[in-house]
Amino acid sequence: MKLSNETRDVLKNFAAINSNIVFNGGNEIKTMSEAKNILVSATVDETFPDNQLGIYDLNEFLGVLSMFDDPELAFSQDFNSVKIVQDNRSVNYYFSDPSILTTPSKAITMPDPEVTVTLTVDDIAQMRKAASALGVSDVVITANPGDSKITVRVTDVEDATANNFELSVDGPAATAPYRFIFNIANFKIMQGDYNVQISSKLISQWTHSSSELTYFIALEKSSTYGG
User: From CA 115, how far away is CA 16, in angstroms rounded?
Assistant: First the structure.
């Protein structure tokens, strides 16, 4: 088996969320942050063996792959290791016990969202740039009943006089006031446009517009809806 560049890019993104991973077979791969506030799943071109394959240090594994231009992955008969081979060079890489690794135990069922909005690659880049320039980390998404625009504000919710950046985006008219808060450090997502669904149950779903890639990102507990 060979890993495409696209799959390697997905795994690099996964490594930023969690340093370890468990492959459970098939062409869907998942990971979850240690704090369990970010979960991501991706459908890739490759089909992995129907065995649990645990990697303790995903960045190390990707570093080993980068030693080769176009390696072949040959799994051992007992699936305890994989041989990474190209021409007359190879590396024997041993898997870790999946039971000691952080991995999603079940799929998340997204509740009915109160807000659905599209955030473009430029929107997200501007939010990240503003957070860095202003030295803040909160992303606050708000609207009042009847509003035809949603306000996305990058700020510090603990400081009423904090400098802030605002972005106005299209969305459905609000039926109740809301103030949904994210920590921008949790936006560990691959580049692209996203359809974002936000639930008052403090969970959001981010679906990539052109790749089979879905993130679930938790909201901050100080978020409010209605009232």
Answer: 27
C-alpha distances (whole Å) from 167 to each of 29, 119, 149, 155, 170 are 33, 10, 10, 12, 10
User: Closest Cα partner for 189 from 203, 208, 165?
Assistant: 208
Element of type H or E holding 88: none
Residue 95 and residue 56: Cα distance in Å, rounded? Answer: 8
Nearest-CA neighbor of 198 among 211, 189, 207, 210? Answer: 207
Centre a 10 Å sphere on the Cβ of residue 170 and count the other Cβ atoms it contains: 9
pTM value is 0.95
> Looking at domain 115-225, which CATH architecture does it have?
Box (3.70)
The pLDDT value given to residue 173: 87
Enumerate residue ranges in the chain where pLDDT < 70: 227
Q: Where are the domains of the chain?
A: 5-100, 115-225
Strand-pair partners of 92: 83
pLDDT at 192: 97
Compute, in degrees rounded to 10, the torsion defined by CA atoms 111, 115, 120, 125. Answer: -90
State the Cα angle at 93 between 30 and 82, rounded to 5°. Answer: 70
- Reported in sequence order, the residue ranges of 37-80 that DSSP labels E, i.e. its strands, are 38-48, 53-55, 72-75
- Of 2.40.50.180, 3.40.50.10420, 3.70.10.10, 3.20.20.70, which CATH number belongs to 5-100? 3.70.10.10
